[in-house]
Design brief:
Length: about 170
């Protein structure tokens, strides 16, 4: 990893974490729209986004842990399982590029996060599992498709944006 790549990973992590915490009232809990999830389309352009999203989610979940109850220790599920769900979804999103499936790029977090995050949030908040999964699913559709897909299409259309996100010279990729 070059210093430039480390900086790119750190920048993605910082934007994800900051956006999550700035939007805290709707970023945590059994009913959420984590707006920062719009960034989950970035692995379509660069594999560096995968560790960036994982670290950003980890930071956001550590600092947002009070929403899930620091005193009870339940926040650890969000820190570990939520961050690992983001890592898996980001990895799978990166695979969509190899197949040229840009419209499917937002799909992995829409499918994975509700199942994994819903599994522990329903325990923490005592809600019905499928209802919790449904709430998280709707939030993920909003973040990943309504916000993320336009971002992906915008980046794909503009060489300068692709160069910024992927760290490749204009005219390539």
């Amino acid at each position: 990893m070059t210093p430039r790549n480390v900086a790119r990973v750190a920048a993605i992590a910082a934007v994800y974490a900051a956006l999550t915490m700035l939007m805290a009232p709707i970023s945590y809990g059994p009913v959420q729209v984590r707006v920062s999830e719009l960034l989950t389309v970035l692995p379509y352009f660069t594999p560096l986004a995968t560790p960036g999203l994982f670290l950003g989610c980890l930071l956001a979940n550590v600092f947002g842990g009070m929403a899930l109850g620091w005193a009870t220790g339940l926040w650890i599920f969000d820190v570990t399982l939520g961050s690992l769900a983001t890592l898996l979804a980001a990895y799978l999103t990166g695979l969509t590029r190899r197949r040229g499936l840009s419209l499917l790029a937002p799909l992995p977090p829409v499918l994975i996060n509700p199942l994994i995050v819903g599994s522990y949030l329903q325990q923490i908040f005592g809600n019905n599992y499928w209802l919790t999964v449904g709430y998280i699913f709707v939030g993920q559709v909003v973040a990943c498709y309504i916000l993320g897909l336009p971002l992906l299409l915008l980046i794909r259309r503009h060489a300068k944006l692709r160069a910024i996100v992927a760290g490749i010279p204009e005219g390539e990729g």
